[in-house]
Amino acid sequence: xxxxxxxxxxxxxxxxxxxxxxxxxxxxxxxxxxxxxxxxxxxxxxxxxxxxxxxxxxxxxxxxxxxxxxxxxxxxxxxxxxxxxxxxxxx
Length: 91
Hints:
The protein is of the alpha+beta class. The protein has a domain at 31-89: CATH 3.30.1390.20. 40% of the residues lie in helices and 19% in strands. The chain has helices spanning 11-28, 47-55, 71-79; strands at residues 33-38, 64-68, 84-89. The protein has a three-stranded antiparallel sheet with strand order 2-1-3, with no helix packed on it. The protein is elongated. 10% of the residues are buried.
């Protein structure tokens, strides 16, 4: 059986478009930061949630970390609101 080959899409255009979008996102969120503080224990929580806390830079109660205010960070914060306190900082 013969199979038809699909025409390859130009990868350079897609990569350039993605790079422009990433730069625009970084510029939009470059000044603002978020201060995250752990207020509850990680004992008895799911492993995925523990991994999210580690990704936020928090290991034990009282730990504080300053992170850029980006959608990725906001998504991680949304997963663990019961364990942390969040405050905004910067422009």
